[in-house]
Amino acid sequence: MKKIWAPAVLTAGLLVGLPSPAQAENVLANAGFETGSLSGWTCASGGSVVTTPVRTGSYALAGGVTAGSTGQCTQTVSVQPNTAYTLSAWVRGSYVHMGVTGGAKTWIPSASNYTKLTVSFTTGADQKSAEIFLHGWYGTGAYHADDVELDGPGGEPQPGVPGAPAAPKLGAVTDNSIALSWEPASGTVTGYRVYEGTALKATVTGTSATISGLAKCSSHSYTVAAYNDVGESARSAPVSGRTGGCVDTGLPKHALIGYMHASFANGSGYVRMADIPDAWDIIDLAFGEPTSVTSGDIRFNRCPVSECPNVESDEEFIAGIRAKQAQGKKVLISIGGQNGQVQLTTTGARDAFVRSVSAIIDKYGLDGLDVDFEGHSLYLNSGDTDFRNPKTPVIVNLISALKTLKAKYGEKFVLTMAPETFFVQVGYQFYGGAGGGDNRTGSYLPVIHAMRDDLTVLHVQDYNSGPVMGLDGQYKNMGGAEFHIAMTDMVKAGFPVANTGHTFPGLRPDQIGIGLPAAIPAGNGHTSPAQVHQAVNCLVKGTGCGSYTLRGGTSPALRGLMTWSINWDHYFKWEFMNAHEPFLNGLP
Q1: End-to-end CA, the chain
Q2: Closest by alpha carbon to 502, among 418, 404, 580, 390?
Q3: 374 an active-site residue?
Q4: N- or C-end of the chain: fewer Cβ atoms within 10 A?
Q5: In this predicted structure, what is the pLDDT of residue 436?
Q6: E strands of 300-383, at which residues?
């Protein structure tokens, strides 16, 4: 039931002439003016930093417009040639302009409240620096700006500027704080600034910081930059963490997850709920499917007797679910699959999705939902290039539906996702909304990002996949340890999203699983147990990684393994379960 995507959709012609992908977010120094000064900026005619009005933080820029000056403020940054960047700023005032000297620019005639301006540009083949500007217009009064952001990779540092620090490491975590530490940066360093997105969270002279005042059970991603009197370094790679105070879902540290063919046999035969071994920690009922592609009305029809002669009654099925739950197991309804195309193109379809999925969960007393949208369920409209702020209705409505379901069922609601690599890791090279290829590439990224605080496990299907480029710039082929290492590392470390200028922050290791076929007939890309164990040992312990270097570091809390499917594993006398369940239990 898992869809195969053909590498032919990524033709060689698509690789020619594309800008290089970005490598880090926001290369501007003092982008939110939170140093309380104009450090990093050069302003004409008395520009200043003010405490009101601000959009976020404690400070914002006030441009010194006069009858003879536009009050321009500029910052020159190092950039990389032939690379896509996105410049944005929140501004208020009259005739406020923003752009790149000699290049792209935009403006707004009037904004009584902070309004976002955005412009994208691509550097020239030999370009190594860019001057960013903000200004008002002659005699129209002061303008204000805050949260200026230039998304893209930093270029070679200016002479005298410190080198970028290595990625910070997580330290002690409480319900409302996260501690970070990092290695000293090269060069002369006055101090370090810790950022979350564009927001400055801490300025310290040492190599550690504790970020306080955070909400409980909330996810955060931080970068660190070094600075001195000459300027600020490029940002470090990000590190992601979550505060404490989360409700325990009851899952083991390392879980075995499998799909049960509950509505069809698929050649492997039907397995009654009561006959599923206790080793399976999450059981996904495959599949809930829509009455039509765009209806949003999901129905779960149990396998008919004509196809599954040994199928149990609804009463026995529900009793089997209760028995699993009494053992601490989780039983979810999985929506979609290869044949269940779900396109929530309207708010009406969104609402129907929420009602119908709720009805299934309530009827069977399930623990949550698995999103297994494949085929053409998700896509990105042209120009929808910011995964953090998607605009395409099928994406926006799905996110809204998932948030509604999570709010309805509360903190113990289990939410998992099973996208193919095409919809996640291929976004490193191609992003559907940016054009130039299949508009489905990377289309799961906005959904994953929007739900990252509520997501229990993301288990990407590391099978039925074409070659995918890893963070080392090399194409990886399914079926061996390196494919699983590289694909999982991308989800943990995060990665630049194609030529959009935005970087997808990595997930926590406890949110990450590896999707595998249970046997050769179950899906292309079957991997031997020895190769799977090598991959997991690399990811968890840092051993057996071969020539690959983990960009996201080791993941001792890696959640575990998912397989398609329990039925196929039963057909092959539980080879997958018997090989991997003891191995997972033996991990630290």
Answers
A1: 34
A2: 390
A3: yes
A4: C
A5: 67
A6: 330-337, 368-373
- Mean pLDDT in order along the chain per 10 residues (588 residues): 38 33 63 86 85 91 88 87 90 94 90 92 87 90 93 77 86 94 93 87 96 90 90 82 85 97 93 98 98 97 96 97 97 93 98 98 98 96 94 98 97 96 96 87 97 96 95 93 97 89 88 97 96 98 94 92 98 98 96
Q: pTM of this prediction?
A: 0.73
Contacts (Cβ under 8 Å, ≥6 apart) of 408: 354, 358
Q: Quick check: helix, strand or coil at residue 100?
A: strand
Nearest CA to 458 out of 247, 282, 211 is that of: 282
Residues 214 and 177 sit within 8 Å (Cβ to Cβ): yes
Which pLDDT score is estimated for 9? 37
3-state SS class at 488: helix
Q: Quick one: 106 exposed, middle or buried, by C-beta within 10 A (0-12, 13-18, 19+)?
A: middle
CB atoms within 10 A of CB 320: 18
DSSP-derived pairing of the beta strands 282-290 and 298-299: antiparallel
Assign 309 to helix, strand or coil: coil
Catalytic-labelled residue, pool 149, 289, 374, 420: 374
Beta strands in 212-277 (DSSP E): 219-227, 239-242, 255-261
Amino acid at 233: S
In terms of DSSP H, where are the helices of 365-504?
Answer: 393-409, 445-450, 481-493
43 close to 63: Cβ distance less than 8 angstroms: yes
What value, to the nearest 5°, has the Cα angle with vertex 97 and ends 92 and 103?
Answer: 150
Residue 197 structure tokens: 């997105």
Report d(CA 75, CA 79) in Å as an integer.
12
In sequence order, what E strands does 213-362 have?
219-227, 239-242, 255-261, 282-290, 298-299, 330-337
Crossing angle for the helix pair 347-364 and 314-326, to the nearest 10 degrees: 80
Give the phi and the psi of residue 316 in degrees, each rounded to 5: -65, -40
